[in-house]
Amino acid sequence: MIPAASFAGKHVSLFGLGGSGIATARALIEGGADVLAWDDNPDSVAKAAATGIATADLRGADWAKFSAFVLSPGVPLTHPKPHWTVELAKGAGVEVIGDIELFCRERILQAPTAPFIAITGTNGKSTTTALTAHILKSAGRDTQMGGNIGRAVMTLDPPKPDRHYVVECSSYQIDLAPSINPTAGILLNLTPDHLDRHGTMQHYASIKERLVAGSETAIIGIDDSWCAQIAERLERAGRQVIRISKRLPLTDGYFADGTNLMEAVHGRYSKVAFLEGIGSLRGQHNAQNALAAVAACLKVGLDLGEIQSGLESFPGLAHRMEQVGRKDHVLFVNDSKATNADAAAPALSSFPRIYWIAGGLPKEGGIEPLRGFFPRIAKAYLIGEAAPAFSATLGEAVPYEISGTLAAAVDHAAHDAARDDSGEVVVLLSPACASFDQFKNFEVRGEAFRQAASAIDGVKPIGGAR
User: Fold this and answer.
1) pLDDT (tens digit per residue) in 336-372
2) CA torsion angle for 170, 171, 175, 179 (degrees, to 10)?
3) Which domain does 266 fall in, by range?
4) pLDDT at 429 exceeding the cut of 90
5) Of 285, 313, 341, which residue is a domain's last?
6) Residue 466 lies in a domain
7) Cβ contact 111:144 at 8 Å
8) What pTM was computed for the model?
9) Which residue, among 56, 118, 66, has the nearest Cα to 94 in the 3D structure?
10) 324 with 461: CB under 8 angstroms?
11) Is the dihedral of CA 439, 445, 450, 456 positive or negative?
């Protein structure tokens, strides 16, 4: 835990008592703050009170005594309207912050030179965070990973000069971290997302921009116009900017040339790393993730040999194009995290011949946006509530069956794939749907796929499969 010593002896209010909220309250208390916490959920309040955290309805609190108000990132700050606690805090002139802001203040207070890599973007944050942390750990660096992935940031070990922090930041967290100041800040990409919480795309993009604007070095993917404009704006303001691109040769920066990762310096190119043969980093989207990780790790002092070694040993994340097993020429891939068509596209673009398991609780738009990938699909196995609609979209373009259940789909797909003599083929779960018609969440669905695949005679687990 990181004791929040920057608030020692001060009164702090806190709203949101989920896992990270309780961890943040404990960190404040450990640092010497007087904390008063609340949540709209009585069970959460009871759980916090049982751990010794002082709780009371903040409607009746004396806000004039609070030095800060710590808000859970899951609670509306601005849209569709500010939460009632935010209105009370602003009315009393109390700053509204989150746990990432607490971390930033403690780093500055305790070890301002501790390498700090912060990652944001609409897509790819978790993989880039995990990959960067893996490379650092593989190279023997003292590495802490958390934030919007894994551990709540205030539960990480306290800052010290040689301790590296790799922190995934959502837009909600950045919005509550006005002094965020990474050694290397990564902005991967921007597409419309969370507009119910941010109001407009412009506001959403401006929040993401704060992370790289406060960075010592800003690493920005420029394959979309929003990020390209941010890179130009920061460079004009005198910030150090490193551009990355998964599809365009650059004059300066890092870009992907097939599976080679290239550095450009005034138009002169050199290869810095490669992804050939690294199954956990297939696809153009993972090339972008790897480019960001490479640039960040170089910034904090790793050499190219250490970075390449880390890339090659990266196991990938569970449920994100996770290779779970192989039987002869058939690879089994769990992409259960793909809960809509846009999320399924990277996996469908990464394999040439696919036995595709899709379906579940359908999202708006269905799978029509994936039509360009239909030629890659040898056969589709449709499950859940979406099966009838998906079958209508596939029509005569793709052979399909309505398998009904995931277990049946895996069994039938494995049987058909085994008889395919066209080379390596993939049994891919990339549902393009939510899981809630048949499973509690996408993790449970992915685990069911992994178990069904491993139960097939002759399937051997792949290193890194969980």
Assistant:
1) 999 989 889 999 999 999 999 999 999 888 999 999 9
2) 60
3) 101-313
4) yes
5) 313
6) no
7) no
8) 0.89
9) 66
10) yes
11) positive
